[in-house]
Model the fold of this input.
Amino acid sequence: MTRLISFVGTSNSGKTTLLTKIIPKLREKGLRVAVVKHHAHGDFEIDREGKDSWKLYSSGADVVVSSPVKMAFIRRAENDSLDWIFDRYLNGDYDLVLTEGFSRAGKDRIVVVNHPEEIGRFTHGRILAVVCDADVEGFPAFKKDDVDGIVRFILELVGNEGRCIQT
Done:
């Protein structure tokens, strides 16, 4: 079963930095990890104007760009809900799907904030833990530099879903 955990928090709280430190350690433990990044500001481009993939997409086609080392799927969004993305593309292919954002999706979450009073903005789902350099009460809490502690916490969560994890 694929476990989904959202990393939510205020802008510039360190979510991306934290994820880039956590992911390699989770992969070292044998987990297949995917990340869904929410871009709440409308359209975005992953290819450049004038490139073949851009021309093909602009002509009306959805496009897959493939190479021996990576693949991208450029598709018109039918739905940008996390449930739709997870069910259609991720569930079953990964052990763990982490999201950056999707704070209103109501999923289990690790809240990353600069100040404890910001936690209340992210209660649309079950808070599993809080990452903040200030003291936090009422939740399992980690400092931002406690990457190993956060990884152990996530491994426990994934392990409780029945997958055998290397520890």
